[in-house]
Structure formats: C-alpha cells, structure tokens
What we know:
- The complex is a heterodimer.
- By secondary structure, chain A is of the alpha+beta class.
- Chain A folds into two domains: 75 residues, Ubiquitin-like (UB roll); 70 residues, Orthogonal Bundle (DNA polymerase, domain 1).
- Chain A is 36% helix and 15% strand.
- Chain A is built from six helices and five strands, in the order ββαβββααααα.
- Chain A has a five-stranded mixed sheet with strand order 2-1-5-3-4.
- The longest helix of chain A is centred in the C-terminal third of the chain and has 16 residues.
- A seven-stranded mixed sheet of chain B has the order 1-2-29-28-27-19-18, sandwiched between helices. In chain B, strands 5-7-3-14-11-12-13 form a seven-stranded mixed sheet, with helices on both faces.
- Helix content of chain B is 28%, strand content 23%.
- Chain B contains 22 helices and 29 strands.
- Chain B has four domains: 201 residues, 2-Layer Sandwich (Aldehyde Oxidoreductase, domain 4), CATH 3.30.365.10; 201 residues, Aldehyde Oxidoreductase, domain 3 (Alpha-Beta Complex); 194 residues, Aldehyde Oxidoreductase, domain 4; 164 residues, Aldehyde Oxidoreductase, domain 4.
- Chain B is an alpha+beta fold.
- In chain B, a hairpin with a 2-residue loop joins β23 and β24.
- The interface between A and B is large, with 57 and 60 residues.
Amino acid sequence: MTILVTVNTVEHFFDVQPDEVLLDVLRREGYLEVKGSCHTGDCGACTVLLDGRPVASCLTLAAKADGHTVTTVRGIGDQAHPHAIQDAFVKNGAVQCGYCVPGAITSAKALLDENPDPTEEEIRLAMDSNYCRCTGYEQQVEAVLDAAAQLRKGDRK
Amino acid sequence: MSIERKGFRHLTEGSYPATHVVGKSVDKVDGYALVSGAPMYTDDIAARDFPNRLHGKILTSPIANGVIISIDTSAAEAMPGVRLILTWKNTPRTFYTTAGQGWPEPSPYDNQMFTERVRFVGDRVAAVFADSKDVAERALKLIKVSFKEEPAVLDADDAMKPGAPIVHPEDPKGAYDAAHNVAAHVDINVGDVDKALAESEVTISETFQTHYAQHTPMETHTAFAYTDDKGKIVIVSSTQVPWHVRRIVSRVLDLPMSKLRVVKPRIGGGYGTKQEILIDDLVACAAIRTGLPCEIELTRKEEFVSARTRHPMKIDMSIGCDKQGHFRALKMYVLSNTGAYGSHSLTVMSNTGSKTLPLYNKATDVRFFGDAVYTNLPVPGAYRGYGATQGYAALECTIDDLAAKLNMDPIELRKKNMIRVGEGSPIFEALGEGRQGVAQTIKSSSLPTLVNLGAEAIGWMEKRGKHVRSGHKVRGVGMSMHMQGSGIPLIDMASASIKLNEDGSYFMTMGATDIGTGSDTILSQMAAEVLGVTMDQISVLSSDTDLTPFDVGAYASSTTFVSGGAVVKAAKAVRNQIFSVAAEMLGEELDQQLVIAEPKVEWDNTQADPILSFYRMEDGNVVSVRSGKKVSVSGIAYRAYYEVNQRQIATTQSFVSPYSPPPFAAHFVEIEVDELTGKVEVLKYVAAVDCGVSINPDLVRGQIMGAIANGIGFALTEEYHFGSHGNMTNPSLFDYKILSRRDMPPTEVIVVDNYEPTGPWGAKSVAEIGINGAIPAIGNAIFDATGIRLHRTPYTPERVLAALRGKSV
C-alpha cells in the first residue's frame, strides 16, 4: 500500500506493507536518526512525534501515519542548527553513548511544546519511557530544565 | 577549585599544575552529531552504505545440553532469498575464546564457531544469511535439527559434584579441570589465614550469593562485513576491542591480518558486553562466502539469551580481628558460575579478590581462592566492575556484620583498616589478572575525605541506628567503601599518533575505543593541554585497525589512564619536534637529546620537564624562555613542510605502565523498607569518588551516575529468571526491569580530585568503580533499618518480606 506522510515538513509517498511498523519504514527511507532498540515499545529509543505527540515508532503501524505528520529528532534540529534542547544536552554532559538521546530529546520536545515550564518531576514523568543505560538520567533532566529556561527567555527556539 | 550545585560537588585536595583545558567540562567532540541522531552507529552505516546487504539470523539451541544428531538445511537453502547457511558442517573447527582479551588470552579455548554439541538454551546451532531479515527468520524455521538431549547442570553448586554432567567433555585448552567442570581455579595465600583466624579474638564467616544480570546496552550487538576494493574484508562492529576482534577472527577464519580490517564506529553502550567476539566471525565468514555485505543485529531477546551476563557468585567471606577491630585475617572463597563457556572466567574471578582485599591492607594473613565452574546456563563475561562488584557485595556486608558484633561504628572499623597513601598490599603482587600481579604503592588517595563527606551528606550521625518509623515503613542508612584499578599494569598497552597541520592544528589518531564514555573528548583535552591549544585545534580518529595505532581496547578502566598516557607522550613528542624547528628559526641552541628523549607521563614536582626551561607552548605559539621571542606553530609547520630542512612533524607513542592506581569511592544510602510488602525504596544515594584529576568533570559525573543507576538496578530489580530447562523466562525490557527516570532516587555525586603522579595529567579511572556500591550499601541500610541481613541478591520485595518473616533466603 502507498501512504502519504509528511516527515520533517517534507511530503513523501511511501510504499509499505500493511504489517510494517513506522520505525522500519523511516529507517528504510533514510531517516536513520530514528534508532531501534527493543522493538517492543519498552525503551523509547525510537520515539518520534506523530502530529506532535510522542509515539514509539516500533509499535506504530506505518499505515497509521498515512495523512499525518511525523517529526524525527533531525526535524527538531540538526548539527548545524541545533534546537535549544539539543544544545542543552551537549552543554550539560547529558550524552554518553547517545543511542537513547534522539528518542529522549523527542519526548522532551513534546513536553516543552505543551508545558514550557515543567517541574523536575514532570520532566521525569514525561520522559519516563525513555530508558538510558549510561547517564543515570540526572544530567538529562537538568538539560531539559535548562532548555526550558532558555526557550522561555525567548531568545532562541 | 570547587563547584557546587544540586546533585554534584567537585572538590580538590592537594595542589598541582594549572591547566587550561584539562579539568574543564568541554563539549563532547561528537556531542552535536549524537543529539541530532547522525547515522553513526553500526546499523546506521550499514543501512546507509549497503541498502542491499544480506541480513543474518542465528538459530539457537532450545535445549540446555545435548548433541546435534542431524541437521538438515536443504529446505531452508531452497527458499528464495536465502544466500548462505552456516553450521558446524561447513565452518572452521578452530577452538578459541569469545573473550576479547589480550594475547595470550587468559580464558579457555572452549568455543568453536559451531559444534555438534549445544551447551545452553541460546547456544549457536546455525546461521542464515538472506536478502531480508524476514526471509532469514522464516528460513530458520525450515532448518530441521534433531538433538539428543542430555542431563544438564543448572546449578553451580552441583557442577563439581561427582557424576555431574560434563559441559565440556572435549577438555578445552586452558580450562583448569574440565572433567570436573572447573573452567578456572585460583588460590593465593599470604601468611597462614586459617591459623590467623583460629587465633583471632573475634571472627565472622558469612556466605553471599549474587545473581545473573545483564548490561542491556541500548544498542544490541551489531556488526557487518564487506569486501573493499582491494579485496580486504572490513568488519564494522559495535565492539570495545577492535584489535582483539581482528586477531581472533583472523585466527578463527585463517585469514591474514593484511586481509582484515576492523572499524569501530560510535557504539550504543558497552559496559563490558562488547568486549566479546559474538557475531564478528559470522559476518566476516558470510561476506567471504557470499561476496556480499552481510550484517547481524541481535534482537533484544537474543541479546538477553545469547549475549553476555554477569557471573553469579557464591562467596564465603571470613574476617578475623582483635577486639578493637584491627583486621588480621581475610579469607574469601568464590564459586563463580561461568555458564556454558569460560569467557573471562579466570580474570573476573581473580578480580573478585584482587580489587577488593587490598582495600583492607592491615590484614596480615590473607587467602583468596575460588573455582569458576561450567554450567548449562547463559554465558557471563566482562561486566563493569568485573568481579569486584560481587566481591564487594560479600566483603562490605560482612564488615558491617563484624562491626555490629564488635559494637562499633562500621565507618570507624573501615577507617582502622583501610589502605592509605604510601602503603601497599601483598595482594597486588600475588594476584593479577589471572596470573602474578604487580606490586603497587598508593601514591594518592582522598578516601578519608570521601568517607567524611559522604557520611555528612547522608546524615550518618543523625540517622544511623535510629530505625525511624512511619507506620509500616522503617528507615535505615548504610555505606560501603571501594577501590578498582586503572588498567592492567604491564599488560595493557595503548598508542596514539599526532601530526601537525600547516595552520597549527593537529590530527590525532589513537587506538582508544570510545564506547560512549567520552574518551575521544577527554583524550583530546589531554593533547590540547600539552600543545597549548583550544579543543577546536585537535581533531581525532579512533579505533580503526588500519588507520590508527594499536590499543587493547576499552576495558579494565584503562582508557583514561593507559590511552591517556599514550596521548600525553605523543603530544609531548610532537611538541618537542616543534620546539626543535622553533630553535632553528630563532637561531637558538637546543640540545637534540631533549627533543628525542622519550617523554614522561609521570609528574615529578621536583624535576620539571627539562625542555620547558627552553621553550613553552602558548596559544598556538612557541615562546622562547631565554629570549622571550615568539614564533607561531603554523609558521613552524609551513617552514618544516615547504621551506627549509623539510620533514613531517608527527609521532607515534605508546604507553604501558607498571602502575594501576586505584580510584576510591565511599557510597552512602538512605532507604525505607516497607515491612508490609518487603519493598525497599532508596530515598537518597551519595557517592563520593576520587578518580585522580577529573579531566572532564561533567563526563566524570555521568560515568558515576550511570554506574549507580545500573548498580541500583542490579541490587533491587534486575534478575534473570529461569525455567526448568535453564531457559531465561524474562528476556525483554518489560520483564527485566532496569531503572527508569522516575525510579532513580535523588543522588549526590561528590568528586574529590587528588593528583595521581603516575597518571596523565593526574588522572586515574572512573568507569567501573561506581557500580560496586549499591548492593552492599543498600544491604547494610536494610540491616540498619530492620536488623535483617540478606545474603542473596537482588533485594526484591519477595526476598525482603520472606526475610522479615523469618524465612531463610
């Protein structure tokens, strides 16, 4: 079947199998910033935004994205133009191996879009499904607090 | 220097040279690529560069022990899209170890690519390479295997009993006594421990049992191989040990090293599990046979079932002391379960003693002995902490029980017996990595400060022994003390090359393997410091067996210390070459002996680097100390490359050290036990750590935090469950519970820098030590809260509740 999906503001027609998940389709189409890990929806590494809401792309059928908008971490910001959250992750030492980070940043983006001034507890809750085995989370939580403060000041996006 | 913010305190003890890049929390050199998800992990590169590659899937054993009577692959081979099937019938029969260790490997050669025998549920039976994962998976189901099942040994306690099934009847080379399932054996004696125990005024003996657990890196083991345009097989692998992969695969496949290259891209976490050759042999073999790029990416389930785990250990710990608590005797016996293969069996077990017992060096009589036994269970290997984690579980809990017996504060008891600056331990010399060790004298230690600061941060004096109760919940505090090492002395070798570019920037290649730890960053900091430049003037390439010099790899907490030593030497050597050209340009004398002398890593307060009394580096310039004149390093490069007496300014240096200075740590925890449910909640965790000079404090903090998170999971929630056939029954991240963001308790990291004179810029290691504290500190806190001592891990609600109800656990 053919689906029409807007990925990071660009419209695409993708040929997909009815049982294919969004993660596999995105990676096949070159969106390699979406990382697979558990493939059972437990770890959050593959998180993307579907119409602005975070979903585990390993559990989301690609067909479900037909007619919808998908945002990957590269749609949030890239190396040349990092988003405030990405900057804050680097500046706060919140990245070690980095494998969980695209998913974690994507969840953080969804949170800050909805709640620009979250408490630490709200951050931990919103990103609870994003496992990280390297950092012990503390510096990632600080990074999101830092990014939220930057964004509230309005001098960057 | 003192940095203080919530959750992190960074302090300094003693004095040492001022630095401009070292000691700063600079950005990770790969940070922005990582946060934008750049295609930099193994599978990303395979997908980008080889969209039409073959995908490999491994058929694994459904039984714990037995022999393959017949294996019929014809139906699978006939399936469209199937390109290659590997079994014991068509692969080399070479015996090897999957442990990625230095040569000669201290682990037994008890592994073959495939054999007629299967030894655990999850063992390799066959591999299929096909046009897609889907086809490969369906082909696996068409392979007809008939097994003759044999009785299995599923409990380490049974392994050495007469009549037990023998896991390795072929008697592998390097196994201690395969006929009795003993893969490795250690027995180290200092003095006469039994006599000392008999004569001690107070003695204590306890037995602790630790459990099966796993690293669970977010990126599972992944590797692919292809043939390059000169006929070379290139393996791109999520490995911690590229050189060991090349050496072992070369031997297994009988492939000359000139025809094999191993590249390590970015790695999605290792923690030891990627110090293992699990799939590299398969993808290389398949690439040769098919002529096509071939990849294997383990699924999460395969990672749990077939990859590596932590050695479960049963440890008998005895201590003898006088009534004042002065240790005289330490006796530790380890029964280590090494599962179906002896990967790291000897060395992990050796570390259980060698990284723990020297901490209490006042004991005059010490015996450390143990057996690592084969069972028909999943295979343990290297895992952060590397045996010390299990050793500390036993040692540090026993010390608290001894303190209770002596009616003494556990901190006071430890302070009486702990190792201090200027002291050694006979264990250092008696016991190394499975062989004789190297004598060590402690040259730096903040341990006394760590204990004091940690006690203060947790509120030890106010909370210890108070049993503060709120309804059915009762609180307690506990602590533990630790050391680890910094590489394996006189064994681990690393090297680095640096060359100068015309604009005064540098290119550094090194074998050091950044597995997410940030070693590319901190090693660049060390080079930048020597060369007097900012971070942007150093670019790095690491871990490619063709393009970079040798390094043993990322293990044994070696990278900062050993690879750092190589980087500091290379930076000094290239700096001296630059000084030599500067002298030419300025028309000044410079003794060439100073230029070519082997650079030192160690720092000697009384004897400064002699060449620095002639020239020094400053912001990309060379400044003459004698004349005050200045020439730019860029000008030096242009002259050396294009104008006069032309030559390349570059060097390769390597480092191997007789020292392995231990980092130190004191962990403190406050917990609450729910006596109704048995649930243990960690209310606060404090880790005070001395890792020498923190080259990058934010990355140091991250290493400690990550190790604590993993350690608490190991102590409370992470555990392999087995069915009656030795089959793991919870192989998913849903059923195997690692800590999430909300599970992580408020945690304070206190780092007390202390210049280690043998280390590069005063650094020691930090990667492993942080994982050793959670089990004993939480166990001791449960004891403080309830008076109950748990001798089995993890401390699950079921176990705690059973113990509270007086049942044996």
